[in-house]
């Protein structure tokens, strides 16, 4: 690691860059002394995910030093801003949202409900939190009103065996996919986006990419109670926060989905898109100012 750090610093100094944009907290930690010294006020730090903040002593403190020395720190979720408690004066004017979206909305019409057919509750992404997914399958796996599909790689074998042992015929694990090539096919067979996760410390503050897919393709989305995503979607008809501990959860989800009003959903989708677009406009303006200054 020290050799890599030395290589990076020497390469940056050799090129005599006026400014830097630093991606990931790992890179920020490796370059912390350089950023807080020679490049103070002359770099942007892009913070995407929680990594070692809970694992390595001093990691979070060092990241805060880097953020304080930056021209601006970009965050993928307001939940990270709350997690890092960036309310101090040294961070004033140095925080900006940079959503994990391309902000190129499709012209998809609301898909509408399929009468008499099972509700297709679909997940795509890395299949992790195996114990949580097993519990989710136990809740919905014997209910003929729902079909569950999980797209993505992970510990699929354990989950397939779990569902086979319990006779869940309405749960499917589709395996690997190519996002660019397959996303439209996946959303075409989706009624509700499954964005349910166990609220561990790294996951809870995030805004999952599936949120932007739901916005883009105008699909209702299930999220976990007590997550930042649930807070972010509060008041939006297309988002519904639940817990696996909720009594009669399948009945609640079925009732919520059945009662969704397309006109209200369409209005909320438009409002939420405008919120994202407004954040993105501020992000682009900040990036432009940085490049010119």
Automatic annotation (TrEMBL):
Superkingdom assignment: Bacteria
Protein name: Glycosyltransferase
């Amino acid at each position: 690691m020290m050799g890599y750090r030395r290589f990076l610093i020497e390469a940056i100094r050799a090129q005599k860059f006026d400014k830097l944009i630093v991606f990931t907290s790992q890179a920020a930690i490796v370059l912390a002394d350089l950023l807080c010294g020679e490049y103070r006020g002359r770099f942007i730090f892009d913070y995407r995910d929680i990594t070692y903040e809970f694992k390595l002593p001093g990691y979070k403190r060092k990241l805060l030093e880097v953020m304080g020395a930056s021209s601006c720190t970009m965050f993928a979720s307001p939940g990270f801003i709350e997690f890092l408690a960036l309310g101090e004066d040294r961070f004033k004017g140095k925080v900006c949202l940079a959503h994990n979206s391309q902000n190129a909305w499709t012209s998809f019409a609301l898909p509408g409900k399929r009468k008499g057919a099972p509700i297709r509750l679909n997940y795509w992404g890395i299949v992790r939190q195996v114990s949580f997914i097993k519990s989710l399958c136990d809740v919905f796996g014997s209910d003929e009103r729902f079909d569950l599909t999980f797209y993505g790689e992970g510990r699929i074998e354990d989950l397939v065996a779990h569902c086979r042992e319990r006779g869940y015929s309405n749960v499917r694990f589709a395996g690997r996919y190519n996002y660019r090539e397959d996303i439209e096919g996946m959303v075409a067979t989706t009624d509700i986006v499954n964005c349910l996760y166990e609220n561990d410390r790294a996951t809870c503050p995030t805004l999952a990419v599936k949120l932007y897919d739901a916005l883009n393709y105008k699909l209702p989305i299930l999220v976990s109670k007590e997550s930042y995503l649930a807070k972010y979607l509060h008041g939006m008809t297309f988002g519904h926060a639940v817990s696996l501990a909720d009594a009669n959860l399948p009945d609640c989800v079925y009732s919520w989905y059945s009662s969704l009003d397309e006109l209200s959903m369409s209005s909320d989708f438009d409002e939420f898109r405008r919120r994202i677009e407004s954040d993105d406009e501020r992000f682009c303006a900040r990036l432009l100012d940085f490049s010119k200054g």
